[in-house]
């Protein structure tokens, strides 16, 4: 029997996953609500499979993904499947880069229970299962890293590259500071720069802008 640890902050989805897995013969040894609990549960139970949401408390950014990558480093060969609400190809690339025995699925796919369970078993068997929509995005990823930015976002990024603060950018573009903050957040997301503890994302965004030019 495959022993599973689930990490999902949404109680209804978490309990739903538990029910589905038990019904199909998996043994759920732990079901937790955040990344820290996930790390602890894996250490305690040594499962055969981990299923985790990408975005979890406290910031709801990429805690689940970072936990998954860390678990793959600490427990080589541990099968891991991450669930995402949206297609985020950078996250998929980070996970796939850890080797075989991983899965990246959109939560919509969970509705097709038979397909979902088959994907889990494929990952447990050492395969790599990636949602078709993610594959299409990875294949069609534009070569220009700035291609996904709107005209306004490019303007904001250019002013960031000049070293201007959000207030200075707002004054230059005749928009509000909250609008600038929103544009900056969109820029960082589109450039695939999720929050981390040890990097300055604005600096990385500027470097990406300068290289593109």
From TrEMBL:
<dbReference type="GO" id="GO:0000160">
    <property type="term" value="P:phosphorelay signal transduction system"/>
</dbReference>
<keyword id="KW-0805">Transcription regulation</keyword>
<protein>
    <submittedName>
        <fullName>LuxR family transcriptional regulator</fullName>
    </submittedName>
</protein>
<dbReference type="InterPro" id="IPR039420">
    <property type="entry name" value="WalR-like"/>
</dbReference>
<feature type="domain" description="HTH luxR-type">
    <location>
        <begin position="142"/>
        <end position="213"/>
    </location>
</feature>
<keyword id="KW-0238">DNA-binding</keyword>
<feature type="modified residue" description="4-aspartylphosphate">
    <location>
        <position position="53"/>
    </location>
</feature>
<keyword id="KW-0804">Transcription</keyword>
<dbReference type="Pfam" id="PF00196">
    <property type="entry name" value="GerE"/>
</dbReference>
<keyword id="KW-0597">Phosphoprotein</keyword>
<dbReference type="GO" id="GO:0006355">
    <property type="term" value="P:regulation of DNA-templated transcription"/>
</dbReference>
<dbReference type="InterPro" id="IPR001789">
    <property type="entry name" value="Sig_transdc_resp-reg_receiver"/>
</dbReference>
<dbReference type="GO" id="GO:0003677">
    <property type="term" value="F:DNA binding"/>
</dbReference>
<dbReference type="InterPro" id="IPR058245">
    <property type="entry name" value="NreC/VraR/RcsB-like_REC"/>
</dbReference>
<dbReference type="InterPro" id="IPR011006">
    <property type="entry name" value="CheY-like_superfamily"/>
</dbReference>
<dbReference type="InterPro" id="IPR036388">
    <property type="entry name" value="WH-like_DNA-bd_sf"/>
</dbReference>
<feature type="domain" description="Response regulatory">
    <location>
        <begin position="3"/>
        <end position="122"/>
    </location>
</feature>
<dbReference type="InterPro" id="IPR000792">
    <property type="entry name" value="Tscrpt_reg_LuxR_C"/>
</dbReference>
<dbReference type="InterPro" id="IPR016032">
    <property type="entry name" value="Sig_transdc_resp-reg_C-effctor"/>
</dbReference>
<dbReference type="Pfam" id="PF00072">
    <property type="entry name" value="Response_reg"/>
</dbReference>
